[in-house]
Amino acid sequence: MAAITLKSVKKNYGKTPVIHGVNVEIEAGEFIVILGPSGCGKSTLLRMIAGLEEVTAGEIHIGDRLVNQVEPRDRGCAMVFQNYALYPHMTVAQNIGYSLKVAGVPRAQRDERVRAVAKSVGLEDYLDRRPGQLSGGQRQRVAMARAMVREPKVFLFDEPFSNLDAKLRVAMRAEVRRLHRDLGVTSVFVTHDQTEAMTLADRLIIMNAGRVEQIGKPSEVYNRPASRFVADFIGSPAMNLIEGMFDEQGHFVYGRGGRLAAEPLNGQRRPGRKLVLGVRPEAVRRTNEQKPGAIPALVEYIEELGAARLIHADASGTRIVAVETENVDIPSGAPVHLEFNDDALHVFSAEDGRRIDAHA
Question: Beta partners for 10?
């Protein structure tokens, strides 16, 4: 296994920049997930590490070696793709061992390694089959086994579960995490699925429009998002984001004249200052009583989730979602009051979207 260092890495297609100076240090043996919406540059960044895309500017180091000009086959990386990329005319054993055959590994040694890797991913009974005789999950395991048999320094995963159904994706996430625990190889995994990312990652790299928005452990990114983008992107249901400004009396005014006391925001209560308050739905409580700090709202509809329900409400023209665990009938249009956990409020600049300390 090897560490990966990216120093001011940029990528242009012609005159169009798509990666804007990424700086990342990935520790040896770490499992990093690059997360972001489609088109944010996450796969491009992964392909630059693999050597499948040229670097326009900056440096990529794998271990102590600068690899900008190193051929992909010589970087010590093994890549698992979304579409499996298996040879349909070869058996599972032949697909897994093909890179060893090309490298000139003796037949006996090659067969031994193929059997050992196949057993680790539960394919020992399928070695004589061809890809067309396998399920989607089994084919993805073949793709992972083919990468593992090379004993690489780095594993690179490019949205490998996108073609699998929901139940199989859960099983494959557990499989990848187990393999990483057993092998300890540095791994970089690209996905747009935040549940996948939160489940797998030691640390997350959140990307937006070719830039890194935040790097941190899943719990850090969830509990302390560095920007409005991260706050809105991480979490299901998404964080409530309330745009407004402070009046002369120090109330936060939002929507069509709604007012929030916002006691924890004493240091930010400058009249006319535009801010965005964020609060996760699980930190919003419904009450039928008008309490200090609670805001009035009208229920728009209820979203049933089984163990809980989501209340979608209109508060002076601003949509707010609250998690409801009580089994009570709440009709559409019903008046409610919503309370926020004061210590769960997040504050973001309305200008650049970056996080502001609520007590600054």
Answer: 20, 57
Angstrom distance (rounded) from CA 190 to CA 254: 37
Residue 35 near residue 194 (C-beta atoms within 8 A): yes
Residues 57 and 36: beta-carbon distance below 8 Å = no
| 358 phi/psi in degrees, rounded to 5 | -60, -25
Whose tokens are 């302390």? That residue is 224
**Per-residue pLDDT at 293 exceeds 80:** no
Model confidence pLDDT, tens digit, residues 254-287: 888 888 765 556 556 666 778 898 999 999 988 8
Please give the DSSP secondary-structure letter assigned to residue 292. Answer: T
Confidence of residue 246 (pLDDT cuts 50, 70, 90): confident
Give the integer Cα–Cα distance in Å for 116 and 354. 49
Query: Domains of the chain, with CATH numbers?
Result: 4-229 (3.40.50.300), 237-356 (2.40.50.140)
Contact criterion met (CB below 8 Å) for 128 and 38 = no
Q: In 3D, which of 210, 254, 230, 253 has the Cα closest to residue 355?
A: 230
CA dist 23 → 26, 35, 207, 299 (Å): 10, 15, 12, 45
The per-residue pLDDT for range 128-153, each reduced to its tens digit, is: 999 999 988 888 889 888 888 888 89
Is the preceding peptide bond at 237 cis, omega within 30 degrees of 0? yes
**C-beta separation of 302 from 310 below 8 A:** yes
Residue position matching structure tokens 């670097």 = 55
State the helix-helix crossing angle for 136-148 and 107-120, rounded to 10 degrees.
Answer: 130
The tally of CA atoms less than 13 A away on the side-chain side of residue 229 is 16
